[in-house]
Design brief:
Layout: H1 15-22, E1 44-49, H2 53-65, E2 69-76, H3 79-93, E3 104-106, H4 110-115, E4 121-124, H5 131-140, E5 144-147, H6 155-170, E6 175-177, H7 185-195, E7 202-211, H8 225-231, H9 237-240, H10 243-246, H11 249-258, E8 266-272, E9 287-293, E10 299-306, E11 313-320, E12 323-326, E13 331-334, E14 340-341, H12 349-363, H13 370-389, E15 393-394, H14 395-399
Parallel strand pairs: 1-2, 1-4, 2-3, 4-5, 5-6, 7-10
Antiparallel strand pairs: 7-11, 8-9, 8-15, 9-10, 11-12, 12-13, 13-14
Helix pairs in contact: 1-2, 2-3, 2-12, 5-6, 6-13, 11-13
């Protein structure tokens, strides 16, 4: 039975904007092999867990990826969010929308009920806190998974995901990450040229993710503190990991990629709340600056900020011994040579993620992005804790940390409001 949940008017995370933007792009030609999923059918059944803007957008991308795919189940903590997303997706997806009242679930245990249905693929698009438990449940049930970033908010979550990734490999289950730049053709080719030595050995990387503020859904008198925090999950570290984890992970993942997907040794940094100091902003920071160091001495200088009225910049700057590059601009500039710029096909990376997932399921050529999605999340969390504590944090220390950010119970009650971290005083357990 579904747990009772508040039934409030839906709030969209720019669903219509996100989904319309995400569907722009070309198509990929794929020769499909014999289906390797539900016997007797060439239809892949997809279930969506997390019906906010990103989740609803992911469902659109998945359905666009291939015609022989149907959305058959939906789940969210909030009934209003499921209902709203269902209405919008039904209009957008047409015959590919095959969700029924019997396959629509809400409550804290909704993900378990969806996974118990006959779906072949699960889209995990809930707030990051819930991903370790939901990923574990999906893989244990033998489902292929598309898992949004990041995959955890603390050490226990990281360790859980790492074990689940191993189980997915043992079961030959596909696990595709929402770290979408890995699926961008221009970024892929730019990375290949750098890793083939076009600019020599990498000495330093500067990762900028400087943006404005995001949405806030306010507070309603009849909401419990738990509901308020979950409706505004960006602003609570136990739910989002803070924006260095929830957003800046895209930049940090590219730094990890540049370093051959090897974990950094350590991180030091600073950050705080300069503009978002009111209680409505929960307890997250509004800016971070972190230096990561690798075993070979290379460093990544990462900067992320969410402030209105400031100059924005999102780019990856790479300095090598023989040149430099900018990843998102798809340019590589060797010293003394003409700059190279990618000018090939640019299909939507959001579509490509799902195209390649479905192609792998049908062909039997398993994709498992689990190791790098875990390590990128680790990198982001250790950067957060370096700033929260004011201390040097190693990757080993963070991975083995006992810090557990989950509430005591998942109930619609007045849960604790976490304190804002104080560098020099806050400790990492």
């Amino acid at each position: 039975m579904n747990q009772p949940t508040p039934n409030q008017p839906a709030n969209r995370r720019r669903f219509l904007k996100d989904s319309s933007a995400a569907v722009v792009g070309g198509t990929l030609a794929t020769a499909w092999a014999t289906p390797a999923h539900a016997a007797g059918s060439d239809i892949l059944k997809v279930g969506l867990i997390g019906c906010g803007g990103r989740g609803s957008g992911a469902a659109v991308n998945a359905m666009r990826a291939e015609p022989n795919v149907q959305l058959t189940a939906m789940a969210d903590a909030f009934v209003d969010r499921v209902e709203h997303s269902s209405k919008v997706l039904q209009r957008q997806l047409g015959k590919q929308f095959a969700v029924t009242p019997e396959t629509t679930f809400h409550g804290f245990d909704a993900y378990k009920q969806l996974i118990a249905t006959d779906v072949d693929v699960v889209l995990l698009c809930t707030p990051p806190h819930f991903r370790p438990m939901q990923l574990k449940a999906a893989i244990e049930a033998g489902k292929h998974v598309f898992c949004e970033k990041p995959v955890a908010v603390d050490g226990p979550g990281l360790r859980s995901v790492a074990e689940t990734v191993k189980k997915a490999k043992e079961k030959n289950l596909n696990l595709v990450s929402g770290l979408c730049w890995r699926y961008d053709y221009g970024v892929r080719e730019t990375m290949k040229r750098i890793q083939d030595g076009a600019i020599g050995d990498i000495m330093a990387v500067q990762e900028n993710y400087l943006t404005g503020t995001l949405w806030h859904r306010g507070r309603k008198p009849n909401w419990s503190e738990m509901e308020y925090q979950m409706r505004n999950w960006l602003y609570f570290t136990w739910l989002s990991g803070d924006h260095i984890v929830e957003q800046h992970i895209h930049s940090l993942d590219k730094a990890l990629w540049l370093m051959g997907d090897k974990r950094p040794l350590k991180a030091t940094g600073m950050g705080g709340r300069q503009m978002r100091t009111d209680d409505q902003w929960g307890h997250v920071f509004d800016h971070f600056a972190v230096c990561y160091e690798w075993e070979n001495g290379a460093k990544t200088f990462s900067y992320t900020r969410q402030m209105s009225g400031c100059k924005n910049n999102v780019e990856d700057y790479v300095l090598g011994t023989k040149g430099r590059a900018m990843i998102l601009r798809n340019t590589v500039q060797p010293n003394g040579s003409e700059a190279w710029k990618y000018r090939g096909a640019k299909p939507s990376m959001y579509d490509v993620e799902h195209k390649e997932l479905f192609a792998a399921i049908r062909s039997g050529n398993t994709i498992n992005n689990g190791e790098y999605m875990t390590d990128s999340t680790l990198m982001a969390i250790m950067g957060r804790e370096a700033c929260y504590t004011g201390q040097e944090i190693t990757s080993e220390q963070m991975f083995n940390s006992k810090q557990h950010l989950a509430p005591a119970k998942y109930e619609w009650t007045n849960v604790e409001v976490p304190a804002v971290a104080q560098p020099g005083q806050t400790k990492l357990s």
